Amino acid sequence: MQRSFYKSIKFIIILLLILSAIDLFITAGLRKNKTRYFGKLNKICNKDSLPQIAIFGSSVGEMGFDCKIIQSSLNKSTYNFSLTGTRFMQYRSLINEINKPKNNVEIVVLSEVIFSLQEVKAITEIGRFMPYISNKNIYNSLYRIQPDLTFKSRYIPFYKYIAVTPDYYIQSFVGWKSSFINKQLTDTMLGQIAVNRKWEADQDSLWKYAKPIPILIDTAVLEVYRKTVSQLVANGKKVIITIPPIYMPKGQKIVDLTEFRKTLQQIAKNEKAVFWDFSEAMVDKQYFYNVQHLNATGASKFSLIFADSLKKIL
Amino acid sequence: MLFNSFAFLVFALIIVPLFFLLSHKHRWKLLLVSSCLFYMYLIPIYILVLFAVISIDYFAAIQIEKVQEKHKKKYLLLSLFGNLGILFFFKYFNFFIDNINHLSTALPFIKSRLQHLDIILPIGLSFHTFQAISYVVEVYKGNQKPERNYGIYALYVMFFPQLVAGPIERPQNMLHQFHEEKKFSFDNFFSGLRLILWGLFLKSVIADRLAIPVDAVYNSYSQWQGLAVLLATIFFAIQIYCDFAGYSYIAIGIARIMGFSLMKNFNHPYFSKNIEIFWKRWHISLSSWFRDYVYIPIGGNRAGKIVYIRNILIVFILSGFWHGANYTFIAWGLYHALLILLLLFISKYKFKLPNFLSILVTFLLVCIGWIFFRAENIHIAKNMIVEIFHFSKGYSRLYTNNDIHGLPGTFLGLPFFNFIYSLCLIPLFFYLENYISSKKTNHFYKYPTYFKWSIYYLAVLSIIFLGVFDTRQFIYFQF
Asked: B169, B227, B297, B301: which one has the fewest Cβ atoms less than 10 Å from its Cβ?
């Protein structure tokens, strides 16, 4: 009986040691990753050469801002921290990391889309944030969205592994690879994902019969948004709130941006930020691959327009 | 509460030690309370339905023993009507309403339509209803003394390891176990843990991983052609087995740790050489229930061929209908009945296929049946079967270009490496099943400790790092 008891204890201790070793190995690999989402998170959480211009947003921002163009036009280091599939309440975790007075970031661009200011009930791919789940800003932002999952992921050992996707392990491997084998494996796109696709044929029929999309603005989210902008300005950052181009011939049939524009404009005015509405800046179908997302050609053109606008205020 | 959830881990870590800390006379109370909590975790109010079933059978069984022979049947029928009435109300009422409405469309003078009931099926209702029926029938037959302790009888119906998806136990196997004093034993503890580990591996590493491509194809079947449908169906065959057998292993394992013995529910059914053997190895507790309480009472195979054919059809159609109120399940049952009858017909010719081939043919025939089981309706099932045999251009297409956000395309809804990994699960599954079914596990226990432990560690690590842990329920919970 006693022998079996000690055997069980020994088994559990060895298991915990193995699990801890694998956990450390995976997390270390992710922290070395310089590409995609983990690259963005590492850059921002390690304060690893923070850029002068930092862009935040969802997929629209991630596809739409070509940082190489903005960087060369303005001669200021630029990085696109936007995360596909997220809304303001999730990507604000990254904004809060740079929302401090003494760092390299001078300009913060907030790329907003029709659903940015909606409340969210589920975190999009929490795995992207796992290496830094103990980070106060990351934890608090995610906790507000999904308290149960965030709490367990942080405090219950190895619980995080039931919430991550296989990409988590692949990216850890990429991190180790970039560290030992291919040290040049960095994000040459500076955070942007350039989509080399033309307007999708099915988009025409898709939007033809689509019902109007209501733009929901949650008051609680709006208040957090206002506070974030206010703190950024107080910390000496120039804040630019912007709506990137939408393919309006289709988009305006379904989206009434008036209220959304007014809301963002009002916040910008009150908090001494800048509001630029580019939603109707580009009308040619060749620049889009669907109503909300610019393709690589569109992103290059829009980034030039955006850089020109920035030049005027610098 | 799902067995593969964190909530259940906490639940088990509290209940199991507490069970052994309490004295024997209080243990059944702990198990009863914990079973109630386990059941109420989803929809608490449905505990009342469960207690309605329990109360009907508890009193009916006592009356059956008390009253004279000629009145016994009255109480048996009362119990059957009570149990099946509740089952009908929750599970089949809307199905019958749909059918009546459908029929009445043919009669233009009937204008009004019957309304659906807005109800959710209580989890595991079919399982505990059948378990309760087996108790009353056994008391009626005189094979079981009625249980006088209401709490212990309630525990027989709602013992948490087997409450929501079986195995459907018999009173002769279970009731006496609640009266026996259980002592903690490391042998039970280790073998229970091994079963839980194996069950979790089947569920999280295999079943829920394969569920992703299965859902991708079956939820938008019109986008897919031959090979994709075939592959998704094979995946589903493995998914449903790993899901249900995984649940059963965990149930048996958790019960064994506490010293209870539950019946085996699966015996490597995909290694069956014909469909009859398959049914002796698949969901054994349900097949044997239908054999003992339906097939034999209506005559079995002893009253001539016509009656035998009729009985096979009745049992399999009922078995299909037990799974759900949908024609797909009836078709699935009918399909298996026809396979059994076909086997009876060809068995006259005494030709014998090599073992491997007969196993393969049986597996593929079972797979075709699974299409009815998984498809949303008969029409879709029929189209999917046709699709498998329709060798058109694009038959082998598995790839979808869905790079809306610049992401790579997917194979049956999975990224490339994930898809390859899922494909590798097929040979892994058959290898492990073959290893266990050929009793090589006895050799396994003779290996040195470091080797056995390495395998256990590998299994735990696979579950943690490769398992899928979304909120996907066990498939059989819905029945």
From this structure: B297
